[in-house]
Amino acid sequence: MRNTQLIMKKMFHKNSQLPFPVIHDEFRENKWSFKRIEFKTIQILTLVLLFWLPMAANATLTLPAIPSNSSLAKRFELSTEKVFRVKVGETYITGGALIAYINGEIRGAQTASVKFPATGINVYKILVFNDKTGDDISFKYYDILNDKIYDISEIIEFIPNQVPDYTNPEILTAFCKPIDKVTGLIPEDGKINLNATLDLFWQPSPNTTFYKVYVWEDGTSTPATPTYSNVYSTNARIYNLKYGQLYRWKIASVNDCSEVESPEQTFRIRQLPDLTVTQIQAPAGVESGTNFNISFTIKNIGAGNSAGVSWNDAVFVSKDETLSNDDKLLSNTTNIKQLDPDSSYTKTVNVTLPIDYSGNYFFFVKTDYHNSAVELLENNNESKSTDATAVTLKTLPDILVKDILSGATNVNPGDSITVSWKVENIGGTTAKGGWAERITIVPVSGAKIIISPNTDYIDSLTVGSTINRSRKIKIPDLPKFSGGANIEVELIPFPELLEYAANKANNKAESADMITLSEILSLEFQTASVLENSPVPVRCIVSRSGDYIAELVVSLVSSTAGQVTIPATVTIPANQSSASFNLNPVNNAILEGSRSINITASAATFINAVNSITIIDDEIPKLTAVLSKSSPTEGETIEMTVKRDLVTAQELSVSIATNKPNQWSFNVPVVIPANKDSVKVSILITDDIVPELTSDAIIYVSSPGVTSGQVTGSIVDTIYLRLLSKFLLILFQNRQEFMQHGD
Fold first, then answer.
1. Which of 32, 211, 274, 477 is 20 to 30 A distant from 199 in Cα terms?
2. 672 within 8 A of 701, measured Cβ to Cβ
C-alpha cells in the first residue's frame, strides 16, 4: 500500500507542474494538450508577473516561509488537490497568496492565481499534504498588494487523492477580524498643567495587533508619520514637550488587514514657575557665636505653579556684597509649601556665626539651591540683605597650661613617674565645659610617645584662676629613643568650651627641664622551665630600647656553668629592635633536682637584662629507711632513720605505712627539715599476750615526686621466748633426773 501511495504522489506531483492537467470534455470532442496550452500559459503568467511585481516591490507584507511540494511529499504519506476561488464580500480577489493549514502548519500554498482557459476565471490550485483522512484544512489569504491578511470562513475536510473540478472551483470567503477604536485615553481630553515628560495611556481594543501614537502641536497639520509605531503595550511616554504648549493626540489600532483611529484629544503642558527672594530681614548687630534669626520671603512670579516639586532655601554670610564660593553656608532648609502663581511664603531660620567673625557682614538667601525645580528663569533665585550687619566678637575664656614638671630626672624604660602642671584661665569669662589632658614624651631625637588614655577635667575655671594638676605615667618598656626628652601637656577643650583660634596655641606646652631616658636590654624566654633531657631548644629573644639605626652586639652569660648552652653573643641587626637565640639544657647523670639558672644579656651603654629559667632534673630522688635494730622484741622502742638523697632548701613531708600495723606503731607523717637529709622516727613494738613465732613486718616511706623506700624488721615475741625457756628448763631438769636414776 505504501509503495502504491508513493507512486500516486509522484503522479500528482508530476501533474501539478502544469498550470492545468490534460482535460477532455464529456463527449471527448475537444482535447486540451500540454503542448497546446503551454504558450498561452506562459503568456498569462508573464502578464500576471508584469502586473504584480511592480506593486509587490512597494508592499510591506511578508509571506511566511512556504515549504516546497517536494519537501512536503517526503514528510507525509497522503495528498489531495483542490481548486478554489477567493472572494471578499461579492468581489473575487486574485492578487494574493492562498495558504492551507492543518494543525496550524502550512501543508500547501499557491502564491498567485492562474486563469483557467476553459472558463476564463482565475483560480488557486493547491496540493495539500497530510498523513490521515479527516483532519480539518483551514486557510489564510495574504493580499500582498494591499498589505492585508484575511482569515477564511470555510474549513474543509482532508480527503486524499481527490481530483479537482476546474470548471466548478470551491468558493472561499475571506474576511477581516473586526477592530474597534481605543477608549479611555489618559490624560483626559482638555487636561492642563501637565509635565513636559508625559505618560499616555489607553484601554486595549479587540483584534488589534499593535498601536500607532500620534502627538502634534495644536495649530499644525496632523502628521502622516506617527510619533511612535508598532506599540504593543497600551501606554507610551513622550519626552521634551514644550512648556505652556497645547497638544493634540490620537491612537490608531492596527491589525492584519485594517486600521482605525481614536477621536483626537488635547492636553496642555504646564506653565513654569519662577521663584524669587523678595525680602530678607537680618538684625543690625549680632555677637559672634550667638544664635539669632533671619527671615526671608520666597515668591513665585511665574505663570505656572511649582507642581509639587521640593526645593531648598539656603542662607549664606558674606564679607562683601557678592555671593561667592568662599562664603559660609549658615542654613539649608526645605520649602515649607507649594507655590501657585503670585503666591509666597515667609520663613525664619535660626543661625550662628563662627566664633571668630567680626566686622560688617551681608546675608544672602538663595532659593532652589540645588536646582530641583524647573523654572522660567534660573538667574533670579538669590538676593542679599539691604544693610550690613555689625558683628562683634564674643567674650570667651582662654585656658593655658604651664609649669610642667617631672617627678624624676633620670628614668629607665618601664619606670613610672609623676607629671605635674598648672592650668590658668586668662580669658574674659569663666571656662565651662571642661577639657581633656594629653601627655606626650617629646625626645630630642626619635618618635614622640603619647601616653594613653587622656585624663579629663570637667569643672569650671573662673577668670584669673589657676589649678594644679598631676598624673602618674608609665614609660614604655622599650621606647624607640634614649637620652633627653621633654614632657608635653596639651589641653583639648570639649565642645562646650569655646576659645578663639588665635588663643589655642597656649593649650600646649613642654616642660622646661628634660628627663634623661637610659638604654636598656630586655630578655624573654619562650618558657619559664625546661626538662633537663628536652631535645627541643628554648627560643629566647633579646630586645633593646633606644635608637635602632645601628646593629648591636649583645653578650650572653649563664650564672652556672655546665647547665645550659647558649651563644656567647647575639647581634641585633640595624633597624631592628630584637634578635633571637636558642638555649639548650645540658643533660647529665647527676641528681641535682630543679635549679634556677640566670642568663645575663649585656651591651655597652645599656642596662643589663637578667632572666632566669628552671631546669627540671630528669634523675628522680629517692627515700631510704634504716631501723636501729633489725630484730626488735615486743614492748621495745626502736628508731627508724628516714633519709633522702637530694637535700633541698624545702622541707619534705614523708608518709609512713606498714603491712602489719598490729606489730608496731609510729606517728605519721614525718617531715625532713629544710636543708637536712634525714629525720628519726620512734617506733614502738607492740607487746600482746598472744604467743606467736618471730615474724617479718615491712615499713614503707613515700613522698610525691620521690622514689619510695622500705625496711623490714623481724619482731620477736616475748611470750614465745618465755615458753621456750621454760620448756628447755623442764627438759633439762628431766634429763638430770633420768641420769640420776639411771646410775
1. 274
2. no
